[in-house]
Amino acid sequence: MKIDSTPVPQNEALSKARQDRLARVLHGDKDSPLRNMLEHCIQQLESGVQEISHRQHSSDDMPSD
Question: Is the pTM of this model over 0.70?
Answer without folding.
Answer: no
